[in-house]
Prior knowledge:
The chain is an alpha+beta fold and 166 residues long. The protein has helices spanning 26-39, 123-136, 147-158; strands spanning 46-48, 58-63, 66-78, 82-89, 92-102, 104-110, 116-122.
Amino acid sequence: xxxxxxxxxGDPILKSVCDPVTVFDEKLEALVRDLVDSVKPAGRAGLAAxxxxxxxxxxSYDVAGxxxxxxxxxxxxxxxxxxxxxxxxxxxxxxxxxxxxxxxAKVRGVDVHNEPIEVExxxxxxxxxxxxxxxxxGVLYLDRLTAERKKSALRExxxxxxxxxx
Length: 166
């Protein structure tokens, strides 16, 4: 099992738009294995490539016994019905805030062989699909908070010892 070191809020890669995957080779397969291995520990639901320092459009997920990954994901469907759901992030540890998310989401992408795949889900899986796709677009869940919650979250994050202070 290859566990990769996480990047934390403040690291510029987390605010960068990721490049699409164009080369489907052993390096991509190794990245996907690392992402899937790194999302397995308890308390984790998803992990995007930039969270381990890789600027490519790939994420893994492990929600309610459903584990997988998507290369070059795009959200193709979001329900109109939304809810506020408690949300956290491996790159913003120890902080949880209610975040508005669609209750249902569908993502399309490809696998490591460039074959089409689709993942869809409700509630926590829908939240995960939206959260991880956001990472690939340089968006953190903190960016989706109400103004007051975001202000509070940023204040709390800056005081944490994991905050990236370069």
